[in-house]
Structure formats: C-alpha cells, structure tokens
Design goal:
- By secondary structure, the chain is an alpha/beta fold.
- It has a single domain, classed as Aminopeptidase, CATH 3.40.630.40.
- Helix content is about 25%, strand content about 15%.
- It has a 9-stranded mixed β-sheet, with helices on both faces.
- Strand 1 and strand 2 form a beta hairpin.
- The longest helix is centred in the middle third of the chain and has 22 residues.
- The protein binds zinc ion.
- The site of zinc ion has 4 residues, from loops.
Length: about 325
C-alpha cells in the first residue's frame, strides 16, 4: 500500500518553465530542455552525466577479460558546451532541444545497442549497453525521449528540415590528425546518416572557415579500419529509424578539460550556435563574421549559467543576425 512518501513522489512536478517557450524537465534520469514549438535541431549528450560514485547499487557494465568489452569514460564537460549552444541560440531567437542522460556510463552506455537488439555499429559489436537488467527501463527511457523530441520536430518542420546531433568528447587524437590535432570529429557512418542535403559539409565548412580543424567523413573511409570516432549506435540507429539526418560530433578535450579551456569552449559553443545551416538553429552569421581575424567583442547580453563560464571574457562575436530574412539584434 502506498504511503505518504509515495504519494508525494508521484506528485513531484519535474517540469520548470524557463520562459514562455522553453522548459526544463527532469525525468527518468534525463535532463530535457524542450521548446513549446519543437526545435529543428535535437542534441543528445549520453556520456556526461553523473560520476559513478553518485550512482551505485547496480552491477557495472562488465569490461570482460581483455578489459575492452565496455568503455566507462565520461565525456567530461560536453554538456556545458551544449547547454551554452542552447542558451546562445535562445538569445538569438533560435531554438535547440536537448537531452542529457544522467546515468553514469559505468552502468549504462547511452550509445550502445541493447542486448538482443540489432547493432548497426560494428566497432561496438562486442560491447553491452548495460549488464544489470534492472536498468533496462532507464536505458529505454533515454531513447524514448530522443524519439519523442525528433518525432514532434519532424511533424512540425518536415523530415528533411530536422537534424539530430549526438554529442561526445574525445581525448586521444587519431593517427590521421594534423599536427595541431582535430578540434571536432564528425561521424556520419561515411555519410549514410545524411539523407537530405549536406548539413555535414555545410557545418564542417562553416567551422573550418572560422579556424577550426574539423574531420569530415567522406563516402569512403580514409583508412582501412574505418574513420576514427565514426558514428556510433545512436547516430546510425536514429538516422535509420527516422529516415532523416543525424550526425555525431566529437569535441576535443582542449575545449573541455580544464578551467582554462572555458574561454575556448564558450567560443566553440558560440560558433556552433552560429552554424549557418542554422536555418536549423534559427541563427546566421553575416559574411563579415566568417573571417577568423575579424575583431570580436564580448557580448554582455550573453548569460550562460553553466558553471564553467565564470570568466565572462572574449566570448566571441554576436552581431545582428538574420533569421528567415528578419534581422535579429540580440
Ligand atoms: Zn561519448
């Protein structure tokens, strides 16, 4: 029989309105930022949740005898960057919906196929999503949130106008990296997850013009064993399920690792939010902004609350933008 605590827990309000159009929901170990009018871009962050010591009580994912059956590492500080992308887009009347999975990767990997289901990612064919069946519900909750966010976006904007991004962080530079290393590595299963137009090429072009080192997968892998950090389960599976565009973005550790990386991380978030194809994001740069050497000034209107951005300096340029022909001054 339910006691008073149970009634109270059942009645907990987990959705907080942030503004008239944006709400934050915590449910099923997911943190979900969602707009009343669905955004065209949906970003998921599966590997930057709680640390293992925050969780517990369950069986961790088994690494196997060779230690390679499960990756446990956290994509540290990817979420603050995504959170900033959201807030920067928001400030310019753009919109991005996002979900962060909070269960530590030690227990559930939100980028692996569930046991018994088809795994389209050969790189992880020997890896499990979770090894404790009690966690099955949490695993599927996360993917259901992604599916719902995308489904309503597709219904509102049309399939070809929606972009799903699975966002990660990488530490080790691949052998094909330039001497200075990659800043971003895109994963599209060699463009099989790009079904409409060229959002991958446009995004890579924009970011390259802004001075970033971007790995852009082509139709064929650059090396026999496949491209580095190629699209994982969620990107491949989601593109296949919705029949639309999905892209994985891996962010180098120099944007996330230490406190002094925060200025770089914030600029990266600003530049990603300005992605021209952002008819998706609802935000566009003017041509002058595309030159990396252009003078950049702090925009004091930017209020990014993520803890990383205490030093509110050289954030990057935010000038009048256009959205569907309408100039926005933020
Ligand atoms: Zn990851």
């Amino acid at each position: 029989m339910a006691d008073q605590l149970s009634y109270f827990l059942d009645s907990l309000q987990t959705t907080i309105p942030i503004s008239e159009r944006l709400s934050l929901t915590e449910a099923g170990f997911c943190q979900i930022l969602h707009h009343t009018v669905p955004a065209r871009v949906v970003i998921s962050v599966p590997h930057d949740g709680m640390i293992p010591a925050d969780f517990g009580h369950f069986h961790p994912r088994d690494k196997g005898p060779d230690g390679k059956r499960a990756v446990h590492g956290r994509d540290k500080h990817v979420w603050p960057i995504v959170n900033d992308i959201l807030q920067i887009a928001e400030a310019a009347n753009g919109a991005v919906d996002a979900v962060r999975f909070l269960v530590p990767r030690l227990y559930i990997d939100g980028n692996r196929a569930a046991q018994g289901s088809e795994n389209p990612d050969p790189d992880t064919s020997h890896q499990t999503a979770f090894d404790d069946d009690r966690l099955l519900g949490l695993y599927f909750n996360y993917f259901e949130v992604i599916d719902h966010l995308i489904a309503r976006a597709v219904k509102h904007h049309g399939l070809k106008n929606v972009l799903f991004i699975d966002c990660h962080g990488f530490g080790k530079q691949p052998d094909i990296a330039p001497p200075e290393g990659f800043d971003l590595i895109l994963g599209t299963d060699n463009r099989k997850t790009i079904r409409y137009d060229e959002p991958d090429r446009l995004f890579a072009g924009e970011m390259t013009d802004l001075g970033y080192q971007v790995f852009l997968p082509q139709e064929q892998p650059t090396r026999p064993q496949g491209d580095p950090y190629s699209a994982g389960y969620t990107t491949i599976n989601t593109a296949s399920v919705i029949g639309g565009n999905a892209m994985q973005i891996e962010i180098a550790s120099r944007f996330r690792a230490a406190k002094e990386d925060t200025v770089r991380g914030k600029k990266l978030a600003t530049d990603i939010a300005g992605y021209r194809q952002a008819l998706h994001f609802g935000v566009r740069y003017q041509p002058a902004d595309r030159h990396p050497g252009a003078s950049r000034e702090v925009d004091s209107h930017l209020k990014c609350n993520s803890w990383r951005w205490e030093e509110n300096t050289s954030a990057g340029v935010l000038k009048p933008r256009h959205f569907l022909g309408v100039e926005l001054r933020i």
